[in-house]
Amino acid sequence: MKIRSMLGLAVMALSFAASAHAEDPWIVRPEWVAAHEAFLASDALNGRGSATRDEAIAASYVASQFQGYGLKTAPGMTGYLQSAVIVRPRLDGPVNLTAGTATTTDGLTLLTSSGQATAGALTVFTGDDPKTLPSTDVVLLAPSSQAALTGYMRAAPGKNIKLLIVRESEEAKKIWGVFGNKTSMTPHLDGDAPERPRINIVVLSAAVFDALKAQPGVNVALNLPPVVEDRSTTTNAIGFLPGSDPKAGVILYTAHLDHLGVRPDGVIMHGANDDASGTTAVLEIAHALATGHTPRRSILFVAYGSEEIGEFGSNYFGKHPPVPLTDIVANIEFEMIGAQDPKLPQNTLMMTGFERSDLGEALKAHGALVTGDPYPDEHFFERSDNYQLALQGIVAHTVSGWATTPTYHSPTDDLAHLNLPFMKAAIQSLIGPAKWLADSDFTPQWKPGGKPVR
């Protein structure tokens, strides 16, 4: 009787061990997803403005979740938070524009500024193609069609234009709002010089613009006050899951945790989709992978700060990684997975730069609901945190639910406009592939011509 009991216990123990090794499929619970969103996109966090106390609170929340899941601090770190100082220049005083002998401040908005005063003979440009902008110091933009202002803004620095003058429009007003209704200047990490200094872009009222347009060749001068440099701290949250094979490489899952903060009129920009949803995905994948057997590969989970003002969290991480960048075999960034793109199959995520590497195809083959980017002209591959690492050779992509959602950078990007069942299903589809990637010897590769260059 005693021998039988012992034998039975042994069989039960072996059965339990086998069952534990097999591991039941991990199920993402909808209440977990909803809870993360309810805090990150709450009024209490005031829109998680870049490099603010609210962003730091969001980072601390993510860090506490990492710790609660059992993740370790990353190699060389004593905690779960990584901070960096951002220098944010601003103009300390009024701006005016002189044309000939006349000076005006009325009807003038300085949209972006390099911080450098500008003077030169006025060139009136009436073309419709930004690629044909002239290479001269001062250009008044008067295209014959309603071409997008943003296209000219992107093209002008490459033409060495110092001052671009544009007419008031709804598009200019919208851009001004995105900049927080204040002149946008190029911030940079403390110790770094701005990589791409902004040019001076002046928006003039219709009357002032039309009067200036009638004076081609007149000498124009933009007069600026002194520049003051404000400093603030941005925060990354980092958790680490050590693997069993130190030589197998590291997988990196990332999202940005900041958003636009509070508008000057007091409206909170909650950023429930952009990018509390991506942060939630990182948290839930960490939750799943930290529960169960030790993966072969080590895994880093990072929520970056200050993406919205220049991808500074990921920039700093790339310059101060807790593991050598050469050890990172793949990076998957999550950006705006809180809404379903009507162009994509049901419950499917788009992967930016899908065709550039074999990572998307491999994940898809193992059950991930991912497909190519239906908006190639928007260049989303270059517009998220993945790009910082892709430029350094790491196979890095961003997955998104709907990159052109109508709530983008809008007060309507709130909890009420999230598709939580879609979020849950999208995250769930990635758990199995993430576990496979963590245990496999598959190393993603760029396809010919797919690796980006500076």
Protein model, in words:
This protein is α/β, with parallel strands linked by helices. The chain folds into 2 domains: 26-86 and 232-439, 3-Layer(aba) Sandwich (Aminopeptidase); 93-225, Glucose Oxidase, domain 1. Helices cover 29% and strands 22% of the residues. It contains 11 helices and 19 strands. The strands form 3 sheets. A 9-stranded mixed β-sheet has the order 8-1-11-15-12-16-19-17-18, sandwiched between helices. An 8-stranded mixed β-sheet has the order 3-2-10-5-6-7-9-4. Strands 13-14 form a two-stranded antiparallel sheet. Helix 3 (53-69) packs parallel to helix 7 (272-290) and helix 7 (272-290) crosses helix 11 (420-439). The longest helix is centred in the N-terminal third of the chain and has 21 residues, at 2-22. The chain starts with a helix and ends in a 15-residue tail after the last helix.
Total beta strand runs = 19
Low-confidence stretches: 1-21
Counted by DSSP, the helix tally is 11
In one word, what is the shape?
elongated
List keywords for this structure.
454 residues; alpha/beta; Glucose Oxidase, domain 1; 2 domains; eight-stranded mixed sheet; 11 helices; 19 strands; disordered N terminus
List the helices and strands and how they pair.
Elements lengths: L1 H21 L7 H11 L12 H17 L11 E11 L4 E4 L2 E3 L3 E5 L5 E8 L12 E4 L7 H7 L7 E5 L2 H9 L9 E2 L10 E5 L1 H8 L5 E5 L3 E15 L8 E7 L4 E2 L5 E2 L2 H19 L7 E7 L7 H8 L8 E7 L14 E3 L7 H7 L4 E2 L14 H5 L5 E5 L19 H20 L15
Parallel strand pairs: 5-6, 6-7, 7-9, 12-15, 12-16, 16-19, 17-18
Antiparallel strand pairs: 1-8, 1-11, 2-3, 2-10, 4-9, 5-10, 11-15, 13-14, 17-19
Helix pairs in contact: 2-7, 3-7, 7-11
